[in-house]
Amino acid sequence: MMPMEQVATPVEDSTVYRYHLLRGALDRFQKNLAQLDEAQLAEARSRASSTFRIESLVFGTPEAREVVVDRQRLDAALEEVSSRYPDEQDFLADLAANGLDVETLRSALYRELVFDAVMQRVGARRPVINGIDMRIYYELNPDRFRLPERRTARQILITINPEFADNTRARAAERSAGIADLLQRRPGRFAELARRYSECPSALDGGKLGDISRGQLFPELDAALFGLQAGAISPAVETEIGFHLLWCERIHPARQVPYTKAAADIHRLLDARNRRNCQKAWLTELARQREKQGVRNGT
């Protein structure tokens, strides 16, 4: 009798391909198979054929035969999938609608766990990253380690909403102009006036937006904020939601991240790249050997 802590290797079955087909549909289109049109189904089939072929290739290797997937881990993987459904009936119905059942899903998940374990072992053979590699990458990719200019900003927003008398476009423009006049005389009251008049959630914090990089705000606000000097307040700027008054509190110039600060990220990036390259080379050689063996066998 098979020990409970170990799961028997399932016999390869083309029904497992249905799992890859469903994954392809969900990953690419966020749809079940029945929801795909002809072109989408063709693309899902192409993706499924590729992933199933690669998984099957790996599943037949000595490395895969060394992997042990215990029952608890497989049960947890199955539970993770079923937990996405309101109840077991919905889970089983969805499986059936996609040409699957619980046992097929278990087999597919088992293969997936074995595949992942093998690829982790193969990736562990990657070359070790050294300091010279890291320094060269830093010097050759300066733009990756350049922090863009940022502006510490606050805003006062008067919204446009025709359903309220004080928020018609004309009234909102008039109110924002009045606040702008107050700020011209007492710019130091910006946070106070934001708490009193702003209709943005940031009003609770004196209109504070935090540190803003280009492209984070509406285009009109982006242009206004990055055209201000430090300490300056913009005139009222209209967007689709209302009128905004912006205060540029501070300017943080663009700067280069020093190598000592970037080193950890560089190591992670290069290490991940080496892992992928190692796995890709192993899969390529595996496919080459399988093709060579097929030629010898006349298949």
Give structural attributes.
single chain, alpha+beta, Triger factor/SurA peptide-binding fold, Chitinase A, domain 3, two-stranded antiparallel sheet, 55% helix, disordered N terminus
Structure, described:
By secondary structure, the chain is α+β, with helices and mostly antiparallel strands. It folds into three domains: about 15-125, Triger factor/SurA peptide-binding fold (Orthogonal Bundle); about 130-145 and about 260-299; about 150-255, Chitinase A, domain 3, CATH 3.10.50. Helices cover about 55% and strands about 10% of the residues. The protein has eleven helices and six strands. The protein has helices spanning about 15-30, 40-60, 60-65, 70-80, 90-95, 100-125, 130-140, 170-185, 190-195, 220-225, 260-295, and strands at about 145, 150-160, 210-215, 235-240, 240-250, 255. The strands form two sheets. The protein has a four-stranded antiparallel beta sheet. A two-stranded antiparallel ribbon has the order 1-6. Strand 4 and strand 5 form a beta hairpin. Helix 1 crosses helix 6, helix 4 (about 70-80) packs across helix 6 (about 100-125) and helix 7 packs across helix 11. The protein is elongated, with a radius of gyration of 30 Å.
